[in-house]
Amino acid sequence: MTTPTAELAAFLRTRRERLDPRDFGLPPRRRTPGLRREDVAELAGISVDYVVRLEQARGLRPSVDVVEALAGALRLAPDERAYLFDLTRQRPRDDGELAIAATPPLARLVTDLSPLPAMLLNHRYDVLAWNPEMARLLVDFGTLPPARRNAMWLCLMHPLVREFYVDRETVVREGIAHLRAAWAAHPDDRALSGLIDELTGGNAEFARLWAEQDVKVNGRGQKVVRHPEAGVLTVQFETLRPVQDPDQLLVIHRAADERSQAALDRLTRAAAPASAPTPARSASGGARRP
């Protein structure tokens, strides 16, 4: 039976053997393909003996730094790098390329999902793109400063959105539990830390719930909302994480019953073309939250 240790050994060996020494300014090898173990050890800044033991499946578990060094030395593609981290049961550090704008194909998908209300978020709950139906259901994001297009901030601080959810306590609690999980996964994200600090210092409800240490990632559920025009309606939501852009979250809403569907239909018919989905730069791109 294949084990992670054996697979790690085979993966490192095959990745090493596929490399052309000439790409590293080294003379080609006549008898065996690829780089020597000595070459990989020098490139990664580790001992030759360590490389040998890894390739012989001797049960080592490399540190995050060693895994990162090996990925660089072996010139691994992003998917291969992620696979190497999975094999070693390590988690890569943030590479600094977190989503601050909607990926164009995903922004178009948000458009194509009409008449279903849909929006695109990043892990901080920054709203990156939306369609007219989403703007009619929740709030017209286009009228907000980019620094305030954040679903968590809106739920806590916006005067209209604050009263939007009938079961407000549950919605806020679940949102904060998701935000805590995102914070643990992205500890170096200064924008996320800044948002948490702002809400902790400026909102007693957030500070109280944040201190409870709840952690939960809720990708599917149902919410009862109190809409100023459509009245009370119930919507189901589904959150999808694209494989190609895992830092972006596609949130799709549907009516939960016939009465809610009729209310949603009235809203979507009134959705103005001017509110077309707009990829929105989030407040995290170096901008300071006011």
Automatic annotation (TrEMBL):
Span list, region Disordered: 267-290
Biased composition (Low complexity): 269-290
A Pfam family the protein falls into: MLTR_LBD
PROSITE patterns from the UniProt entry: HTH_CROC1 (PS50943)
Gene Ontology MF term list: DNA binding
SMART domains in the record: HTH_XRE
Domain HTH cro/C1-type positions: 34-81
Record's protein name: Helix-turn-helix domain-containing protein
Organism: Amycolatopsis pretoriensis
Lineage: Bacteria, Bacillati, Actinomycetota, Actinomycetes, Pseudonocardiales
